[in-house]
Design brief:
The protein has about 100 residues and is an all-alpha fold. It is about 80% helix and about 0% strand. It has a single domain (about 5-100), classed as Chorismate mutase (Chorismate Mutase Domain, subunit A, Up-down Bundle), CATH 1.20.59.10.
């Protein structure tokens, strides 16, 4: 690690902001997954499939549009959401398997 005294003050400030954003992202993702775990439980309880392709398509389109509005690469936003969706489907499948007799 670089000696702190040799790092410009502005670089330290930016890095501190990045660290704060990373922490916020983790907390937000944790809250999101709490919701999706409940969705998975409800789907399993009601015999619904773990995936919902139409919902996923709508969410990807919505988040890509938000990315464009926020000057973020929409392809990155799509990859990020696809990663999250894959994890959610995994959780939903596990929930469904736990409820099977």
């Amino acid at each position: 690690m670089q000696d702190e005294q040799h790092i410009p003050a502005r670089l330290r400030e930016i890095r501190e902001s990045i660290d704060n954003f990373d922490a916020a992202l983790i907390h937000i993702l944790a809250e999101r997954f709490k919701c999706t775990q409940e969705v998975g439980y409800l789907k399993a309880r009601h015999g619904l499939p773990a995936t919902d392709s139409e919902r996923e398509r709508q969410q990807i389109a919505r988040l890509k549009a938000l990315a464009v509005d926020s000057n973020l690469d929409p392809a990155f936003a799509e990859k990020f959401l696809n990663f999250i969706i894959a994890e959610v489907i995994h959780h939903h499948t596990e929930a469904s398997n736990r409820l099977k007799p």
